[in-house]
Q: What sequence folds into this?
């Protein structure tokens, strides 16, 4: 059964009515095709109107939709012969970040991604995509491996943020994130990041300080969650909607500011309505970027990456 967000309730009611009429037609052999078609047209129009005018807070809800494709779905759909590589060689394996080797449309790549999990057991196993220090140290290790063997790196970002638990802090969460960002900026191979859902705080930047940052149309990317921002500025998490407006966390805002380089259009109604179509669209957007960056000189690649981050924000200040 499809999960509907609060603002989608009028759409949910229409789609429920369409299903009822279809079952009625099947059971009683009544020809109600015209009524079903009329309601389908109305539902499609309402869906277009709703998703064509989403507020930042509604975009936050779409980005968090439990049925959006996760990193593991993109790996399954786009990466052939994927071989997972585990552990940080210091403390443990972190299931919140998947990583490994595989082939993307004929080219060997290293893939890293936050994994939230698709059901209750999966979410607990993957800690809701919130990585601990060992996850970022694993990411650093695999990026260095890619650099050694001159393999492009693709990262898939989908996290509310790094895990803020006591154990994570004791094991050096901030230092691990900083080292991962440093490695992103130091490697001399193509590094492409795709924000597929939530891009939350340093937990996202640790995998997203890339040559090219691609972002799904209804994904979000911000220095802090709207709830966290509201609890700091207003001392009240109920102001999350106002915080979302102020944070400039949508793909349109971030493209204008030069924080992201390309926005990938989502299927009508969001990626969760057509996961296969979304995964294929991400592959089509990723392919030319990898091949263009692969032709760059290694030293020049690092220099361009450095300039990119020194210039962020200037694009939207004029």
A:
């Amino acid at each position: 059964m499809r999960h509907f967000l609060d603002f989608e309730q009028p759409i949910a009611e229409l789609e429920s009515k369409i299903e009822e009429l279809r079952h009625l037609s099947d059971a009683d052999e009544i020809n109600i095709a015209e009524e079903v078609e009329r309601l389908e047209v109305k539902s499609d129009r309402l869906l277009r109107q709703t998703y064509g005018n989403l507020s930042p807070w509604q975009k936050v809800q779409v980005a968090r939709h439990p049925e959006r494709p996760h990193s593991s779905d993109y790996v399954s759909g786009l990466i052939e012969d994927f071989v997972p590589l585990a552990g940080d060689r210091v403390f443990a394996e972190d299931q919140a970040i998947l990583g490994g080797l595989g082939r993307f449309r004929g080219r060997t790549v290293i893939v890293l991604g936050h994994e939230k999990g698709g059901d209750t057991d999966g979410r607990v196993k993957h800690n809701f995509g919130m990585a601990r220090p060992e996850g970022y140290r694993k990411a650093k290790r695999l990026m260095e491996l890619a650099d050694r063997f001159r393999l492009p790196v693709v990262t898939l970002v989908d996290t509310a943020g790094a895990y803020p638990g006591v154990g994570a802090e004791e094991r050096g969460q901030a230092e691990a994130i900083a080292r991962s960002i440093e490695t992103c900026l130091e490697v001399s191979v193509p590094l492409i990041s795709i924000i597929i859902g939530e891009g939350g705080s340093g937990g996202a930047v640790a995998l997203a300080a890339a040559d090219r940052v691609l972002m799904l149309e209804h994904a979000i990317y911000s220095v802090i969650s709207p709830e966290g921002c509201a609890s700091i500025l207003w001392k009240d998490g109920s102001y999350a909607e106002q915080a979302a407006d102020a944070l400039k966390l949508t793909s349109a805002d971030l493209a204008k500011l030069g924080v992201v380089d390309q926005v990938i259009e989502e299927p009508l109604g969001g990626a969760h309505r057509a996961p296969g179509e979304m995964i294929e669209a991400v592959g089509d957007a990723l392919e030319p970027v990898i091949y263009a960056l692969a032709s760059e000189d290694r030293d020049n690649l690092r220099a361009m990456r450095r300039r990119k981050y020194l210039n962020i924000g200037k694009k939207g200040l004029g």
Summary: The chain has two domains: 6-53, 60-316. Residues 60-316 form a domain with the 2-enoyl-CoA Hydratase; Chain A, domain 1 fold (CATH 3.90.226.10). The chain has 14 helices and eight strands. Residues 9-28 form the longest helix (20 residues).
